[in-house]
Amino acid sequence: MQPYIFPYIGYYQLVGCVDEFVIYDDVNYIKRGFVNRNYILDRGSKKRFTVPVPGSSINKKILELKFSSDVEALLKSIHHAYSKAPYYEDVFPMVKKVIEGENRDISAVCCDGIKSVFDYIGISVSLCRSSQLDYEKKLCGAEKLMNICDSLGSQNYVNSFGGTKLYDKQHFLSRGFNLSFLKTKNIGYSQGGVDVFISDLSMIDTLMWCSKEEVAKFIFEYDLV
């Protein structure tokens, strides 16, 4: 998966369900994607947040780009949205530390966001970056994914459920690889008086409203299909 800044819970479920999670950072940057933005809950409404990426271009690899250090407005938005949430005092310092991280490389900040969350909820995970692996980088699509798996000595690959539109299980199987898709179960929790649960928000929302134990339980609320 490409590196995302505090993505939705399904991304964290993918990290938690595999032996080695590969951050796909040697691919071209996609503008208006989720690498540098997501959604929080602000006064009962879904609000998008963005971390600027100076010089961003679809002609540059993710590993070539950095997040801006100008994150004060973003942190203020998160503060105003969640200052009254039950776990704000525990979570906000962690989020702030990640977003203000000294190393502004996109992959570094996003990896830190993943590791920090799993450290917080007490689950051990293993991450690596595709740019650091010895595989055939000229390949594309499914062939590239299988080559990455091969470089790690694995015959099993797990993708998000959206990947069902892109990858064929039989194609992977014909090459000796098992392909599974992670489908998140219906997850809901109190969002501070919101009448109808608002889903598909950044993990920041889940962390602000739920205890460590609840979040750890949510990580495994999925099916592999």
Structure description:
This protein is of the alpha/beta class. It has one domain. Helix content is 35%, strand content 15%. The protein is built from 8 helices and 7 strands. It has helices at 9-17, 72-82, 88-99, 106-121, 141-151, 169-174, 203-209, 212-218; strands spanning 21-23, 37-42, 45-50, 127-129, 156-160, 178-184, 222-224. It has a 3-stranded mixed β-sheet. A two-stranded parallel ribbon has the order 1-4. Strands 2-3 form a two-stranded antiparallel ribbon. Strand 2 and strand 3 form a beta hairpin. Helix 2 (72-82) packs antiparallel against helix 3 (88-99), helix 3 packs antiparallel against helix 4 (106-121) and helix 3 (88-99) packs antiparallel against helix 7. The longest helix has 16 residues, at 106-121. It is globular, with a radius of gyration of 18 Å. The chain starts with 8 loop residues before the first helix and ends with a strand.
Name the shape in a single word: globular
Give me the number of helical elements.
8
In angstroms, what separates the terminal alpha carbons? 18 Å
**Domain unit count:** 1
Biggest sheet details? 3 strands, mixed
Averaged pLDDT: 97
Q: How many beta strands in the DSSP annotation?
A: 7
Instruction: Please identify the structural class as seen in this structure.
Output: alpha/beta
| Rg (CA only) | 18 Å
The percent range for strand residues is 5-15%
Unreliable stretches covering 5 or more consecutive residues: none
Order of helix and strand elements from N to C terminus: HEEEHHHEHEHEHHE
Give the strand order of the largest sheet, numbering strands 1, 2, ... along the chain.
Answer: 5-6-7
- Helix content percent band: 25-40%
